[in-house]
Amino acid sequence: MGMQQTPLLMHRLLERGAQVAPDEEIVTATTDGYRRQTYKETRDRAHQLAHALHDAGIGIGDRVATFMWNGARHMEAYYAIASMGAVLHTLNLRLPDTDLEYIIEHAQDKIIIVDADVLPLLEKLKGRMPSVERIVVATEPGCEGWKTELPNPIDYEAFIEGKPTEYDWPDIDENSPLGLCYTSGTTGKPKGVEYEHRSQYLHTLTLGMTDTIALSAADTILSIVPMFHVMSWGVPWAATMLGSKHVLPHRFMDPKRIAQMLIDEKVTISAGVPTIWQGLRAVVDAAPDQFDFSSLQRVTCGGAAAPEALIRWYWEKLGVEMVQGWGMTETSPLATISKRIMKRSHLALDDDQIIANLAKAGRPMPGLDIEIFDENFKPLPHDGKAVGEILIRGPWICDSYYHTDQPDKFHEGWLITGDVGKIDEEEYLIITDRSKDLVKSGGEWISSVDLENHIVGMSGVAQACVVAQPHPKWDERPVAVVVPAEGAKVTPEQVIEHCAKAFAKWQLPDDVMFVDAIPLTSTGKMDKKVVRADLADKGYKLPDLRG
Ligand code: AMP
User: Fold this and answer.
1) Which segments of the chain belong to CATH 2.30.38.10?
2) Considering only CA atoms, which of 234, 407, 412 is closest in space to residue 331?
3) H or E segment at 122?
């Protein structure tokens, strides 16, 4: 062999930021300003955190959870936990406590690092987290003075204080896990996806490619996409590898504050779901002369389809390129990318053609295979017409769920994505539908099957079908279509009230409609495509409940 067999371990990339850009900043938004620390400080603190975790009994392969916003301490946790060979389990702040309880138990988390302001959410799990030995509480200015009855709590700063700033990162196998993220299933319990050093290492490198999001050492990136979901699309790793200036919004997610961060920190690139970009657009539209976004060059938009009108608005009003990405928790997540110019011949396209291309999910990331298949797993042509189930395979695509057997999600080495679409002659993937039964509201999942099962448990209800309907702000909201039992009288308010007993407020249907029957497929399942098409035919519009 001619080359060294260097294992692709994440610490190799993470140590680079502090080496090449020691004075570059990681900026965390606080109640009335920003907290700044350098890459060198972040690196040293990450080494200290690794020592503290090690001294608290964390070894290679142990799960350490975070329950945190995007902030510098969360960045330190990413750095330390992955580099020391432990597993960073990011807990989603928006999940109902029953799901969190299940996930923490399933992952056997030993320590949870939690932001002080969300401590009350975790407090609900008191006595329900038997695997958790210790809670480490991180405080940003304005959140000091926390109290908790959770086990063995310690302040983050006290936890790392006095620890050495050099940790000898272990040489482990490159296929060892470094991260764990749970995704909501169509029904039943959330499923864990484990990320490995090798898969994240390769994924991280692609973020710097000119033909993808082109993250660079010259950029200031505002990471809005949560670090508690799918490793924040890989941005924390890539920004640290490159030494990009990294701005983190913490809990300050309202569009006005986001606008201010973009301006104050002269942000050049940002990443978030369409709801974020819709929100920012509304703020700018309301006061067009108030904002100077001249530094901003591009925003990456993913997690749900980026509407063409939104892409056009960012380009025409702000001169900002909206780069679309498609992927999922199981795909690390970047699977396809669409940017203005994807090949040399696109230089000759007019703006309408370019924007039409941007509205497609995109072309495959290097090294991934993406195909569409019919119901017998026969591949379909890439002609922009044939519609099939999207399957994907490659070095950062998951091949199984964490300690959960789900063979129906895989086929001969391919992941069955649950998304439906077509591929055109230029290899653009176009998402047309979803075969998995989920509603995605503001980047967060709502299980239509769970809502349906709950609604049919109500007396006076014979059948229930929950479908997603497009919403200008949240992308999608759930609508319940209900068949009442013979002679029964049920009101929409009663259905919503019944759902409120088991679901978070943001998961409740926006509307309840009563029908005589629900259309069925040939195999007797509720035919949601037809239900959605019927609503569209009738010109259905969601009631304006959620702004
Ligand atoms: P998650 O696992 O929560 O990251 O969600 C992944 C799912 O979000 C995908 O399987 C799609 O259903 C949806 N999604 C993500 N990106 C896009 C996109 N660009 N266009 C349409 N749907 C998307």
Assistant:
1) 367-434
2) 234
3) helix 119-123
Catalytic residue among 24, 76, 194, 330: 330
Token pair in block for residue 191:
């499923």
- Could you tell me the pLDDT band of residue 185, with boundaries at 50, 70 and 90? low
Cite the residue boundaries of each domain of the chain with CATH code 3.30.300.30: 439-537
Catalytic residue flag (residue 529): no
Q: Measured from the CB, is residue 441 less than 6 Å from ligand 1?
A: no
Residues 6+ apart with CB under 8 A from 205: none
Cβ of residue 419 lying under 6 Å from some atom of ligand 1: yes
| 270 Cβ inside 6 Å of ligand 1 | no
Q: Which of 364, 357, 360, 372 is nearest to 336 (CA)?
A: 364
The Å distance, Cα 61 to ligand 1 centre, comes to 29
Give residue-wise pLDDT tens across range 404-444: 988 889 999 999 999 999 999 999 999 988 888 889 999 88
Exposed e or buried b per residue across 312-334, where buried means at least 16 C-beta atoms within 10 angstroms of its C-beta: bbbbeebebbbbbbbbbbbbbbb
DSSP sequence for 273-324: -HHHHHHHHHHHHHSTTS---TT--EEEE-SSPPPHHHHHHHHHHH--EEEE
| Token pair 């916003």: residue | 69
Q: Which of 339, 436, 440, 528 is catalytic?
A: 440
Separation in Å, CA 338 to CA 319, 364, 524 = 17, 9, 38
Sequence-separated (6 or more) residues with CB below 8 Å from residue 546: 471, 473, 474, 477, 510
Task: State the distance from the centre of ligand 1 to the C-alpha of 427, rounded, in angstroms.
Answer: 18
From 396, 414, 445, 474, the catalytic residue: 445
Q: Does domain 10-253 have CATH number 3.30.300.20?
A: no
Chain Cα centroid distance, residue 493? 32
Ligand 1 centre to CA of 373 (Å) is 18
Best residue among 389, 431, 448 to mutate for probing ligand 1's pocket (most ligand atoms within 8 Å of CB) is 431
Residue with tokens 């049920």: 490
Q: Answer yes or no: 445 catalytic.
A: yes
Asked whether residue 187 carries a pLDDT value surpassing 80, the answer given is: no
Q: Is 324 in the pocket of ligand 1 (CB under 6 A)?
A: yes
Between CA 418 and CA 8 the distance in angstroms is: 30
Domain boundaries 367-434, CATH class:
mainly beta
| Tokens describing residue 240 | 């640290």
Q: What is the distance between the alpha carbons of residues 317 and 309, in angstroms, rounded to a whole number?
A: 12
C-beta 92 within 6 A of ligand 1: no
When the pLDDT of each residue in the chain is averaged and rounded to a whole number, the result is 94
pLDDT tens digits along 466-499: 999 999 889 999 999 999 988 889 999 999 999 9
Fold of 439-537: GMP Synthetase; Chain A, domain 3 (3.30.300)
DSSP lists the bridge partners of residue 327 as 334
According to DSSP, residue 24 is labeled -
- Ligand 1: which of 301, 337, 419 to mutate, judged by most atoms within 8 Å of the beta carbon? 419
